[in-house]
Amino acid sequence: MNASSGTALRSYPVLLAGLPAAGESWVHWPRSSAVLLDTYETVALKARLDHDRADPADHDDPRLVGRVARSTGEQALAALAAAREAQPAWARVPLDHRLDFVRAFHRLLRERAEELMSVLVAEGNPLQVSRWALSAALNLTHPDSVAYARAAMVWEGGHAGRLVRLVRKPDGVVCLDPARNAPMLTALSGVPTLAAGNALVVNAPPTVPLSTAHLFHELVAPLLADHGAPPGTLSVLCAPARPMLRTWLASPHCDDIFFFGGSAQGAELTRSCLEHGKKPIMELAGNDALVVWRDADLDGAVEAALERYLGSGQLCLAPKFALVHPAVADDFTERLHRKVAALRVGLPDDPEVVLTPVIKRNQCKEVLDDAVARGAELLCGGDLVDVHGRPSPRGPFVRPALLRVRGLERAAAMNAVTEETFFPLMCVVVPEAATSPAAASDDALLDAVLTFVNANRYGLRNSLWARDPHVVHRFTDEVTNGGVLKVNDSHIGTLPVLPIVGGTGLSGGVFGEANVSFLRTTRLQGISLATGTGEPFDHLAAAGMPLVARPAPSTRIPLPGQSGTSRKADT
To answer: Which residues pair with 291 in a beta bridge?
Structure first.
């Protein structure tokens, strides 16, 4: 473990059972700004270093920011065995002491916020995206979030002279595969997972490993050791995902697979987990709806819709389409259009830039063409540009696109609305207004909008902008789709206690729900402690009913077929 601040190269070996170990090679990470400004030369430098063909001067190139060791298959097996051995001892550490580890991490995260943000920016996250990721990390580990976890993990009460306890016990060894588009934030799910009493094996993605390695080497591992965790409690590897997942599935030492990725891959992995006796915790794709009602604060709603373009739309929990009341659709669309057209590309350290290079550029064009062919109106964007905003058929950026679609039925036929779109594209969907009186038409319109939201095959989070208490109540009461609902607030904004990820349908699989990692990586156990008096268990008394009198000695209850006449019992 060797990293320092400033311009020195951050260097992270494999973290195997809490100790540094040499990997089979290095994944070098140049500054994202260097890649954008001088793509060919910078990528060539990385390739020389990664394949051990570098000149001595290459290792001191100022374009480099860090390197992470690639782990071996043998190290993956060793990490699992060490985790299995260490986990029982870590679980025996009192819960409150393990929760102190999270509280200490939260304080350290605040102290080293600028350092962490510099790593995120170097990795390619714009400053605004980095600030959002840091706020989410702070809310995930906030004291209020820890207090909720403490209350949810242990309940005690007295009944029928017995102590009844409901306790959540750790699953054991949890293997975590973070998302490639937000590796640091998704890897942070490992912190409450550890505090729940589990051992953790993290696989930092080789395509973007730096922030994950930095987080665990610099912050998590030292704190974990300070709070009494055995060395095997944590290992941080770096290897391609598919062979790593196969290793986890085959190992008797893996209990949970905590996976971030696409819906199709997640469904396949869920089946494999169940076949191998593993618990699947799936955090998959998102296709969130933002509903704007006739009485909405349009300025606030537009800002929430604009969050679609953070990171060029490559955040799973960003709003993907807006359902806008016909009475305010023109005003809302005009305001949003002006702001979307003003977004510009640039380097990630520019505080005004929110856009990043887009991975699925070809798919973006296909979705746009499909939407226009099906009747959508393209208001702006969709063309490829370079880092300076100049049109280029090989440009890494997509100019932010905005579509307008009239009618829910038409929208339901477009991939731009019904599927997750992982690029800077927002659809404004305007339901057709009814011809009945205003109150009745609004009720019918609300019915249609809520039905549309609930019919979404994805279910990460949904949001509403409305002032009418009746509309707010129906949205929060009747929308069953999604792990999180937001009302009159930032769509992607995070809060203490409120889950950050987790959802239904294609967003979380068959076991999907709002994700509180303290709870998702544990299981509920019920415990009853009697006083030891030897009294027979009285079932009705335990249920809160008064004792039922026994029949008098002189009375015999007749058997079937006998007379009901009482006779004296034999003495």
So the answer is: 323, 464
Q: How many Å apart are CA 20 and CA 245, to the nearest integer?
A: 22
How many other C-beta atoms are found inside a 10 Å radius of the C-beta of residue 129? 25
**19 by DSSP, 3-state: which?**
strand
Rounded CA gap, 548 and 280, in Å?
Answer: 48
What are the distances in angstroms from CA 166 to CA 37, 84, 513, 525? 57, 25, 21, 6
> Cα separation of 112 and 480, whole Å?
39
H-run or E-run covering 30: strand 25-30
Q: How far apart are CA 403 and CA 372, in angstroms?
A: 9
Distance CA 235, CA 187 (A): 13
The number of beta carbons lying within 10 Å of the beta carbon of residue 20 is 16
User: What are the beta bridge partners of residue 462?
Assistant: 485
Query: For residue 3, what pLDDT band results from cuts at 50, 70 and 90?
Result: very low
Choose among 402, 454, 455, 394: nearest CA to 429: 402
Tell me the backbone φ, ψ of residue 292, rounded to 5 degrees: -120, 115
81 SS3 class? helix
The model's pTM is: 0.91
Query: Which ranges in 515-571 belong to alpha helices (H)?
Result: 517-520, 539-542
CB 551 within 8 A of CB 557: yes
* CB crowding 485-510: b at 16 or more within 10 Å, else e: bbeeeebbebbeebbbbbbbbbbbbe
Q: Which helix (H) or strand (E) holds 429?
A: strand 425-430
Cβ(426)–Cβ(288) below 8 Å: no
495: which 2 tokens? Answer: 């809060």
Reported confidence tier of residue 367, pLDDT bands at 50, 70, 90: very high
Helical pair 241-250 and 73-92, crossing angle rounded to 10 deg? 50
Backbone angles phi, psi at 40, to 5 degrees: -60, -50
Burial of 539 (0-12, 13-18, 19+ CB in 10 A): exposed
CA–CA distance, 277 with 129 (Å, rounded to integer): 37
DSSP designation for 220 = I
The pLDDT tens digits of the residues spanning 195-243 come to 999 999 999 999 999 999 999 999 999 999 999 999 999 999 999 999 9
Residue in 143, 257, 245, 116 with CA at minimum distance from that of residue 189: 257
Residue-wise pLDDT tens digits, 96-113: 999 999 999 999 999 999
Question: Which candidate, 312, 284, 292, 286, places its Cα nearest to that of 425?
Answer: 312
Q: Among 300, 322, 301, 319, which residue's Cα sits nearest to residue 309?
A: 319
